[in-house]
Amino acid sequence: xxxxxxxxxxxxxxxxxxxxxxxxxxxxxxxxxxxxxxxxxxxxxxxxxxxxxxxxxxxxxxxxxxxxxxxxxxxxxxxxxxxxxxxxxxxxxxxxxxxxxxxxxxxxxxxxxxxxxxxxxxxxxxxxxxxxxxxxxxxxxxxxxxxxxxxxxxxxxxxxxxxxxxxxxxxx
Length: 172
Hints:
By secondary structure, the chain is mainly β.
């Protein structure tokens, strides 16, 4: 059982940028955890997407459960996705609204199994968007995960103040 989080890297944006990339990720851990607090530099809500090892091809499949908090809920399954996507819970510029995110990359360094990613995200102030989202992704690769690129899905940059921290979990 994993028992220790070790911070690998933190990226806090001092200006808006289209993406944040973590490279040369060591295989020394059992799992990875990526924690984010993000805001779009645009005036409309957006989703975050993660590319594993630079791949944007249809290697991502997901099962999701989302709710707006007003009684509307959605669930389903999608395959052949181009990224690990967070579904419209990122805050927008001009507000104090940042979406919060946690991605768990299970058994990421094993070079013989496909990768499982658990995602949870929320944003309490997104009007007309998803306030809470939970997903499980299957990433159809057996190679170890050595890089992660986080970017907005629909064009606007990540805003100043957006922060992502990558942790490795060491076995007990």
